[in-house]
Specification:
Blueprint lengths: L5 H14 L7 H14 L6 H34 L5
Helix pairs in contact: 1-3
Length: 85
């Protein structure tokens, strides 16, 4: 019997892998950590626990997006505004 959350988990993994390309410590570091996190939870079969883990993954996506936005904002500010004295 196929797990109903399989597609959602694969989509989450792909999204995180895509976002990890610009990770400050490097994409290889992020990919290794991502793979180990997913492999650690590969045997989870409880739908409630899977939903909780997917929710945690969505939270990580939001945090990564905020990190990248802040980094781009700081670069733009540094480029176009004079430093405060």
């Amino acid at each position: 019997m196929a797990n109903p959350f399989r597609g959602e988990v694969i989509k989450l993994y792909k999204n995180l892998l895509y976002l990890g390309r610009e990770y400050p410590k490097g994409s290889a570091y992020f990919r290794d950590r991502l793979k180990s996190a997913f492999m650690k939870n590969k045997d989870v079969t409880d739908p409630k626990k899977i939903k909780e883990l997917v929710g945690r993954g969505d939270y990580v996506i939001k945090e990564l997006e905020a990190l990248y936005f802040l980094r781009k904002y700081r670069a733009m500010k540094k480029r176009y505004y004079e430093p405060e004295k």
